[in-house]
DNA sequence: TAAAGCTGATCTGCTCCTTG
DNA sequence: CAAGGAGCAGATCAGCTTTA
């Protein structure tokens, strides 16, 4: 009972069928029209663009993710804000059209449908996400996607909604693009999942034949800040339980993050772990709280004999970002310690430094063997 | 040929202006 | 006058095209 009560405190999204969303859009327009017929001015009710306002997002101890507290609505008036009004109507129209014909479009496609009205891509992005937040559905329910960005390779079969199967092992050794909103379920016998910050490291790992040396595993990269599809896949993998392994039954597959030891590396890792404030209304489908930070850690370059001259000085932007991260009280102490040491030493370490010395696999092997060093 | 700029997805911070 | 919304700017990642 308490569960129900507590979950009510946060916004939740529900996957809805097409008809439901179409109905929702139509009733929104009908309401607008009847208001006009009654003589009241044309006003649309939507949610506030509170993306970057942390006051509407809160860390939820129970789920270990960032969650949006509630919707606060705003009125967009045709008289006061005609452009904003027109943008919402146009987006509603486009989404309605997409849903009726059951085709999907990327946010970029939508932007190009009316460049003059939208002005820039960001306007479309914001309007789409506001709409998803208003209807309390994942973005995919509007038949809007973003073009694929993340890569995956390894012991994973992705069964898509149209029943086609993507075998991430067999295709090629470059990794395959993570499909957006097409995943029905996955099959894997992987012993761990390695989430890598940068594509360069990802490709390096593949070319060093990591699969031959480490056994069945999955490598994923979001190429910097991950898109929704990448975060969804990591989340799906994080929810899996080993069923075919007697020893590990009912245990999750370890999800390990391999990130730079710099403030941006930690921030990107935190997007995987806690979710972002921008998409906090859908974080229950996007955040993976069980992810652990495998490396790089400050202590590592002494422990593993990494040459000290590969360390880079902190820039002023790094320092600023570091202080901002320390403000987030939900970061665990281990992360804060790393940030503090970074600031104290005024140095950062990038994964590139390991690649140059060609001992990245040795490093990973040693890290795998001591789970208590994962943060 | 190397550097700069664009595309494209994501994130946040800063500043101006409206609103109660 | 303070709080909050809107819009812009700039950061991460990376690849491709254009320019000096």
Automatic annotation (TrEMBL):
Keyword Signal carried by entry: no
A Pfam family recorded for this sequence: TOP6A-Spo11_Toprim
Subcellular location: Nucleus
Any single GO CC term annotated in Swiss-Prot or TrEMBL for this entry: nuclear chromosome
Keywords for this protein: DNA-binding, Isomerase, Magnesium, Metal-binding, Nucleus, Topoisomerase
Biological process, per Gene Ontology: meiotic DNA double-strand break formation; meiotic DNA double-strand break processing; reciprocal meiotic recombination
SUPFAM superfamilies linked to this entry: DNA topoisomerase IV, alpha subunit
UniProt-listed Enzyme Commission number(s): 5.6.2.2
Cofactor(s) this protein cannot do without: Mg(2+)
Spo11/DNA topoisomerase VI subunit A N-terminal domain location: 85-144
Any GO molecular function: DNA binding
Family: Belongs to the TOP6A family.
Protein name stated in the entry: DNA topoisomerase (ATP-hydrolyzing)
Organism name: Gigaspora rosea
């Amino acid at each position: 009972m308490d569960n129900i009560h507590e979950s009510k405190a946060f916004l939740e999204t529900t996957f809805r069928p097409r008809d439901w969303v179409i109905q929702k859009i139509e009733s929104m327009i009908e309401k607008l029209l009847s208001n006009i017929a009654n003589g009241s001015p044309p006003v649309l009710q939507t949610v506030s663009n509170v993306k970057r306002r942390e006051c509407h997002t809160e860390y939820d101890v129970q789920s270990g993710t960032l969650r949006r507290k509630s919707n606060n609505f705003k009125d967009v008036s045709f008289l006061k804000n005609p452009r904003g009004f027109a943008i919402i109507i146009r987006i509603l129209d486009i989404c309605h059209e997409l849903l009726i014909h059951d085709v999907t479009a990327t946010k970029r496609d939508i932007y190009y449908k009316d460049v003059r009205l939208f002005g820039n891509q960001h306007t479309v992005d914001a309007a789409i996400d506001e709409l998803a937040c208003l209807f309390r559905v994942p973005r995919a329910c509007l038949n809007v996607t973003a073009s694929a960005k993340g890569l995956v390779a390894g012991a994973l079969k992705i069964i898509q909604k149209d029943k086609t199967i993507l075998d991430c092992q067999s295709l090629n050794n470059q990794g395959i693009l993570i499909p957006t909103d097409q995943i029905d379920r996955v099959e894997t016998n992987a012993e761990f999942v390695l989430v890598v910050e940068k594509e360069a490291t990802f490709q390096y790992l593949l070319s060093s034949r990591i699969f031959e040396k480490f056994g069945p595993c999955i490598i994923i990269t979001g190429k910097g800040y991950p898109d929704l599809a990448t975060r969804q896949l990591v989340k799906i993998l994080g929810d899996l339980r080993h069923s075919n392994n007697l020893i590990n039954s009912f245990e999750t597959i370890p999800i390990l993050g391999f990130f730079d030891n710099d403030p941006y590396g930690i921030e990107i890792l935190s997007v995987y772990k806690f979710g972002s404030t921008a998409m906090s209304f859908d974080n229950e489908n996007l955040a993976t709280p069980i992810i652990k930070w495998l490396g790089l850690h400050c202590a590592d370059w002494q422990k593993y004999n990494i040459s000290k001259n590969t360390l880079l000085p902190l820039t002023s932007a790094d320092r600023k970002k570091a202080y901002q991260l320390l403000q987030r009280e939900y970061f665990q102490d281990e992360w804060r310690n790393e940030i503090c040491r970074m600031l104290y030493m005024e140095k950062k370490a990038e994964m590139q430094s390991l690649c140059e010395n060609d001992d990245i696999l040795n490093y990973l092997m040693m890290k795998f063997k001591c789970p208590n060093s994962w943060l």
